[in-house]
Amino acid sequence: MNSPPAFGCVMMATLLMLFVCKGFLRVPAAAVGYLAFLLSLVRAAWAGWVVGLITLVLSLKSTLQIRLIATIVALSLCVVPLTVIEPFSEVISNRLESFTNVQNDTSYEARAETYNKNLEVALSGLLGQGLGSTWTVKPNGQIERVALDSGILDTFFTLGWYGGLPYILGMLMLLFNQFRGPEGREDPFAAAARSITVSFLAILSLGPFMVGLSGMVMWGFLGIGMAARKHYLLQGSKLP
Predict the structure, then answer these.
(1) Exposure winner among 10, 171, 198, 235, fewest CB in 10 A?
(2) pLDDT for 159-196, tens place per residue?
(3) Structural contact between residues 20 and 189, judged by C-beta atoms closer than 8 angstroms
(4) How many structural domains does the chain have?
(5) H or E stretch including 37?
(6) Which helix (H) or strand (E) holds 88?
(7) Which residues have a Cβ under 8 Å from the Cβ of 149 and sit 6 or more positions away?
(8) Which domain holds residue 55?
(9) What pTM value is reported for the model?
């Protein structure tokens, strides 16, 4: 976790899973964890956490939803006071303001410029450039480095349409299969696992989060969700 995006993605998954954990240590762990998560300044991870939390709340039955909301309120009372203490407040508030003030956001402008420049390059190949490729050959024979801050564009750039389309559709089908059963409403751990997967898929357009350390977390929780689905199918849908 030697980079903010990797750290932010790991913390995003960890903090979502913390909602369904039990024990007295989760409150101090959440206080320190959320402060570190906010100080990572990774807006993609913040957005993914929001998507994951909404998915988790909507996935559970009403009694578990009430418990989860009570947990959110309790954790907020512990975390919010820490975020208004200097020097944390200025750094975090400036980053949060960039969500609504994109005109003065150099990061957003750089990302938009990269999209406009490399969109055609990423989507123009049927076979792709191959795994690990970061270069393309221009018509004049020059080699040009391609920087893609998007997991979707990176998939089509490396795998092409023939490989990229089945790859993305396969991920979506695996995720959709987890929502077909009722286990997520009764099993908080299974619900948290698939919510984490949803949070990663929601931010794939903002970075290649399906590879590397973040990819290990995403595929790991996708596998856990699939295992939960298989478990309850083998148990004859008998929920605990």
Answers:
(1) 235
(2) 888 888 899 899 889 888 888 877 767 788 888 999 99
(3) yes
(4) 1
(5) helix 26-39
(6) helix 88-97
(7) 111, 114, 115, 206, 207
(8) 4-237
(9) 0.82
